[in-house]
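Hi support team,

I've been running sequence recovery on a batch of backbones for a student project. Most finish fine, but this one hangs at about 90% for roughly twenty minutes before it completes. I'm not sure whether the input is malformed or the queue is just slow. I've pasted the structure tokens below so you can try to reproduce it. Let me know if you need the job ID as well.

Thanks,
M.K.
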């Protein structure tokens, strides 16, 4: 397939222009040409279309190759310019080449024309691609410079030495450190960035960067610097090593920004949280103490009660209070004031209940299986009271006349819910008793508190008593 070629021919002889066209067509070009012989005609031709090459006679009656070259320079054109002349001296040809012509061909040797055109088209394409690449690079550099100048911080390239000698820093250097870039970077720098790093943080910064470089990974650091005015400033830095083809470290590149305000805000939040935590612990402590006072008063009063049923009511009230006191006590001693380690809590509550009923239930074993459960306080308190009521009910009624047996407490998390099972192998709840409608305060509390937890409660009577409470985990 013929290659298209748009050739502008500067020639006053139509026959010579025809010979030029013949040579190029014979070489395989699909030719589009226009012949001009004055400056005005050449201007019009250049306005009408884009051209791939200019082929010019050296001397015309009203025009010349040097004038055509000057015209092209004025218009900023870089096209292959080849002189074709019947009589041109070597000195004249050399002068024309210096003026910008790419080659000259004698008219009696036009066989050289097509190869010369092909070569110069190739060279022109290379020059064009180079210009485009250079322009793209300049545009990229302009974009990068604009971005870096607008970033709230300092981009850098530095050596891996204890003083962090900067090879380059962006314009944000002054806002960050108080030093101009010429002071911190380059061969004439007078201050090294390492001198700005706080004495207490210098070793941490060096060690952290060296570990990251050894593992060829990025690093992130927060540390303090001293600015030119002597102010202490917190900075955040992220960077990584730049490695050469042979694996050696060339430099470190990264970005440093001022996080002083964020650090102060963080410290204020921490201080506020500590104050609130102290206050919350004090509230829990005081509520717990008040509940213990109530429990002690009930205990003192119970000493004057002779009726066994009334004494049981007092004991059950004390145990209910104790179930809440234990939760507040666990919270007071815990690092997390929002959640209770329920495994430890249930074990303590169950042990207290067994001690509360003393020798009357010496033959009853208590098994607790609770693992990996931490409940928020608004769930832990009703759940604790439910366990208290069901275990108390079993200790009172499941093992009459010193009968031996076992009570089990199982609490396990599922994907979206908790499953609490309190069971015993005692005599069992009578078949005709509806635990949802009983007059027993304990079982009434169980159903009420289960509803409060948005849960469900089911009773199985085979081989003893088995209560299963399922409630959602919540947020």
């Amino acid at each position: 397939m013929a290659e298209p070629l748009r050739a502008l021919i500067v020639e006053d002889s139509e026959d010579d222009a025809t010979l030029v066209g013949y040579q190029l067509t014979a070489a395989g070009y699909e030719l589009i040409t226009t012949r001009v012989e004055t400056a005005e005609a050449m201007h019009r031709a250049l306005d009408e279309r884009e051209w791939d090459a200019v082929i010019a006679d050296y001397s015309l009656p009203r025009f010349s190759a040097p004038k055509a070259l000057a015209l092209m320079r004025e218009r900023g054109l870089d096209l292959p310019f080849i002189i074709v002349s019947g009589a041109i001296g070597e000195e004249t040809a050399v002068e024309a080449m210096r003026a910008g012509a790419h080659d000259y061909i004698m008219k009696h040797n036009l066989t050289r024309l097509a190869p010369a055109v092909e070569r110069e088209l190739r060279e022109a394409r290379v020059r064009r691609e180079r210009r485009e690449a250079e322009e793209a690079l300049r545009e990229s550099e302009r974009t990068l410079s604009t971005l870096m100048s607008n970033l709230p911080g300092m981009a850098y390239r530095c050596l891996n030495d204890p003083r962090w000698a900067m090879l380059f820093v962006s314009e944000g250097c002054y806002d960050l450190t108080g030093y101009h870039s010429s002071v911190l970077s380059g061969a004439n720098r007078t201050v090294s960035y390492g001198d700005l790093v706080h004495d207490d943080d210098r070793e941490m910064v060096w060690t952290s960067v060296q570990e990251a470089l050894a593992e060829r990974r990025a690093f992130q650091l927060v540390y303090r610097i001293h600015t030119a005015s002597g102010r202490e400033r917190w900075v955040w830095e992220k960077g990584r090593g730049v490695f050469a083809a042979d694996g050696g470290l060339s430099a470190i590149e990264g970005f440093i920004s001022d996080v002083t305000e964020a650090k102060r805000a963080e410290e204020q939040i921490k201080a506020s949280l500590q104050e609130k935590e102290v206050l919350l612990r004090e509230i829990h402590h005081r509520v717990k103490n008040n509940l213990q006072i109530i429990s002690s008063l009930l205990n003192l009063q119970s000493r004057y009660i002779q009726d066994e049923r009334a004494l049981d009511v007092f004991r059950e009230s004390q145990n209910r209070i104790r179930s809440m006191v234990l939760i507040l006590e666990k919270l007071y001693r815990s690092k997390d004031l929002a959640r209770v380690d329920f495994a430890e809590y249930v074990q303590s509550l169950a042990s207290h209940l067994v001690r509360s009923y003393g020798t009357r239930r010496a033959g009853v074993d208590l098994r607790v299986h609770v693992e990996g459960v931490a409940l928020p306080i608004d769930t832990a308190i009703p759940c604790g009271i439910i366990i208290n009521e069901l275990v108390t009910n079993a200790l009172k009624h499941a093992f009459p006349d010193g009968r031996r047996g076992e009570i089990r407490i199982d609490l396990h998390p599922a994907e979206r819910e908790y499953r609490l099972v309190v069971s015993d192998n005692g005599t069992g709840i009578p078949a005709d008793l509806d635990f949802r409608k009983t007059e027993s305060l304990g079982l009434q509390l169980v159903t009420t508190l289960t509803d409060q937890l948005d849960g469900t409660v089911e009773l199985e009577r085979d081989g003893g008593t088995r209560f299963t409470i399922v409630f959602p985990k919540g947020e």
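--
Follow-up from support: It reproduced on our side and the slowdown came from queue contention, not your input. Residues 53 and 80 are 5 Å apart (CA to CA). No action needed from you.
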